[in-house]
Input
Amino acid sequence: MQTSSPAEATAASQLRERPAIPDRFKWNLSHIFPDWDAWQRTYEILDKKITEYAALEGTLALGPDKLLTALLLADEIGRLEYLVWYFATLKYDEDQRDNDINAKRQQVQILVAKGGQATAWFNPELLRIPLATVQQWMAENADLAVYRFAIEELYRQQEHVLDAKGEHLLSLASRFSTSPNESYAALSTADVKHPTIRLSTGADVTVTYGQYRAILATNRNQADRAAAFKALHGLFAGNINTYASLYNAVLQRDWFHAQARGYSSTLQAALHGNNIPEAVVTNLLETTKAGTGPLRRYHRLRKKVLGLDSYHVYDTTIPLVEFDRKYSYEDTLGWLPESFAVLGPDYTGYLNEAISGGWIDVYESPGKRSGAYSAPVYSVHPYMLLNHNDTLDAAFTLAHEMGHSMHTVLSHAHQPFVYAGYTIFVAEVPSTLAEALFLRHMLSRATDERERSGLLQHAIDGIVSTFYTQVMFADYELQAHRLVEEGKPVTAEALGEIYFGLLKAYHGDAYDYDDLGRATWARIPHFYSTPYYVYQYATCFASSAQLMKQITEGSPADRQDAIDRYLTLLKSGGSDHPMTQLQKAGVDLGKPETVRAVVDQLDALVTQLEKEIA
Ligand SMILES: [Zn+2]
Output
């Protein structure tokens, strides 16, 4: 996950053209293909293999050998798709103004869609064979047994699939189920008239979403921040009944699909895919709500340090200390081996390979894709895209993406293709753990108290935004969905009441409340686009906090055991249900202590910050 800070964007005039950037700061895509000719040849092989696959239709029932042939060919197609897709995509991200490369990228999309159609027969055909028969085949054939988890998953997912008539009806209904989200986007983006406010300096500012975040993060005048908050939330409050009606459509749609597929609740429907027990979510919500003490202490400290008489939601992101130290890419890279040394030679070996060259595209240049990511190119290595601008955020982004890449490389090295990818439910564990280890190292080497305060605040803000806020959002979604499940009316007032109640339950007397805060829920895009999604950021964060505790505290033998279990998790890719994978690593998300690890982590950081600031 990436947080955006528009105030830190590098001025376009300072940008170097890509050829002017030395090669050691660019990724080397010749590790995938030496040139476009080689790419084209593989593209054609892939096309041929897709045609071969289509010809296997109707053969599965003939026995284990035929099933294995289809599975192996599907893997080969998938592996080649990674290569041709990422070569074109990564090239495109170097300069998105290049139309020829964009055309090649779209060419791959068309071929991948063809691949999807050519393989669509497989699942229904396999599912017509009784599971017991397939299990018998796997017991007798070791090569086929590799696919056991994937095959059994397919049968498990089948439990909530309807007959052909029912599925057809649902597919017809799915054509309008994206409509509430599209209407939300139109109302809040395309049709929105952003208001203009006059700042205390006399300057007029149009309050777009980016400007709003920038004012809250950089403007030291509270009245300016208040004006921006009122202007932006006034937009939502002004259309609040329309937003409530759109959100009601989201809730009704989710409940319709859940009931149609035989789930007892919308939450159960949302969790079935990854086989997550509902107790994981209820434990997360309850334990977090009971652990808001350090959150409130942090906000009270902010109020005091900022010298404010009253403290509002729009006062929560302005930095406590002004601190403008630069973190160059090379310095940051140099700190990583020490930061991660505790994880042992298996991990740092791959890390040194990643650092030595060709994996990372460092600097911004005209046309380059914004943000940061780690791309898993199976059978080559991960590539990382950065837009490093020497800020503290950029330094942590490098640590974060490196965490993803080490997960990928360990998973690819130890898993067959079918399990090389991992779910979102575990994906943000290694990245946030890498950030925590990096923070620990940075705090140990910082001699300047301003830098230490800046580091602590960065870490605390990360916990507030990726944990507390996301859990509060998840709580809101669950309560809102329960309104429709219990047949209660969904009105702007009811939704505002849920949100306002949560805001107060989390922040108590640490906040002064504005009535406009009731409209905040209407602004959150995830509520409309991907219901029941954000809680996964929080469960990843809790898992990583618990692992961090186990890796860095206790006896040396216990710590070593924890490290071994953690590396096993990274090496396990997507070979099991995520809850089982985490349990093997020593993390039980059904238990309050796992969630309390985050509360304890925040408590320790706030205590440290209180000391530094005193
Ligand atoms: Zn991430």
Q: What stands out?
A: The longest helix spans residues 449-485. Confidence is low (pLDDT under 50) at residues 1-13. The chain is about 65% helix and 0% strand.
